[in-house]
């Protein structure tokens, strides 16, 4: 059987060379560099090796165990991003593997960044090229567990694995599949990014809806601080009040009118601001 990249194969040590070993089977052989050897080996030994292409495109072997293969998914870390090529990930061997850029939906701003993690497997292309592919929905369903209603309103951490126009798909650390609607976040998370939010719905199929927005009391404090700092930067006044149009509030502060009114109400209750003719002003001592 011909040896091919992307899998772990059992091979025999055929002979030693000056800088390594030739290993293989009755039909094929590949090079195993001494830097890729774990422990002591000798001619005639049977080894489990991972096969991949070196930087010159030659099929080569390593005794290092990869994090993923063409048969097995796993979490791998992003080590380099090239807008023209794609994303390179560390699979645990001497060569990083490319995820082609066309595997990522959306614009470049939601691509993974260095340090993010993706759930992937390897694929050998028709051109005998080894690439990595992110898991799809069906792949993640095999990993997922169903959430119960007891998880409602609980905080969770998760990885984003896919983005669409209306929101982001996630896998939580508990292995719940979930979705973050665009209305439940202040900014769009990127693919591979770790996010923390709270479960706002547990659906009948065990998937969850998650919000990245703070709870109302937390959000009111944060939003009130944002309004106060904005007014500070304008000398203690702003051309907004609880009568301002929702679209104007959204454009300026990235918050709903309801959140704006709660934050403004908090500042007024604390005696920090007052409203007059559509403006809001600092109260001076």
TrEMBL record:
Residues 225-281 form the Conserved virulence factor B-like winged helix domain. InterPro entries: CvfB_fam, CvfB_S1_2nd, CvfB_S1_3rd, CvfB_S1_st, CvfB_WH, NA-bd_OB-fold, WH-like_DNA-bd_sf. It holds the Pfam family CvfB_2nd. Gene3D superfamilies: Nucleic acid-binding proteins, Winged helix-like DNA-binding domain superfamily/Winged helix DNA-binding domain. It comes from the Bacteria. Residues 6-64 form the Conserved virulence factor B first S1 domain. Residues 73-132 form the Conserved virulence factor B second S1 domain. Residues 141-214 form the Conserved virulence factor B third S1 domain. Belongs to the CvfB family. This is S1 RNA-binding domain-containing protein. It comes from Ectobacillus funiculus. The lineage of its organism: Bacteria, Bacillati, Bacillota, Bacilli, Bacillales.
């Amino acid at each position: 059987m011909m040896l091919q990249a992307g899998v772990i194969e059992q091979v025999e040590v055929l002979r030693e060379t000056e800088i390594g070993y030739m290993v293989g089977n009755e039909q094929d052989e590949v090079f195993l560099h001494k830097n890729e050897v774990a422990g002591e080996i000798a001619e005639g030994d049977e080894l489990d090796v991972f096969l991949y292409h070196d930087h010159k495109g030659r099929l080569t072997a390593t005794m290092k165990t990869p994090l993923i293969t063409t048969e097995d998914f796993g979490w791998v870390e992003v080590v380099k991003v090239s807008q023209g090529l794609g994303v390179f990930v560390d699979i645990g061997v001497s060569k990083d593997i490319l995820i082609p850029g066309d595997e990522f939906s959306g614009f470049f701003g939601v691509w993974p960044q260095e340090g993010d993690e993706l759930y992937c497997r390897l694929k050998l292309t028709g051109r005998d090229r080894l690439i990595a592919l992110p898991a799809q929905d069906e792949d993640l369903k095999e990993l997922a567990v169903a959430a119960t209603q007891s998880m409602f309103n609980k905080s969770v951490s998760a990885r984003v694995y896919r983005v669409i126009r209306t929101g982001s798909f996630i896998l939580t650390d508990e292995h719940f599949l979930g979705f973050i609607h665009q209305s439940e976040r202040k900014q769009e998370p990127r693919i591979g990014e770790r996010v923390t939010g709270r479960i706002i719905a547990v659906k009948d199929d065990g998937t969850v809806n998650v919000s990245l927005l703070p709870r109302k009391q937390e959000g009111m404090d944060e939003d009130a601080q944002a309004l106060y700092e904005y007014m500070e930067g304008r000398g203690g006044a702003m051309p907004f009040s609880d009568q301002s149009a929702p679209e104007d509030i959204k454009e300026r502060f990235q918050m709903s009118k309801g959140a704006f009114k709660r934050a403004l109400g908090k500042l007024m209750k604390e005696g920090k601001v007052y409203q007059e003719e559509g403006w809001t002003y600092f109260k001076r001592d």
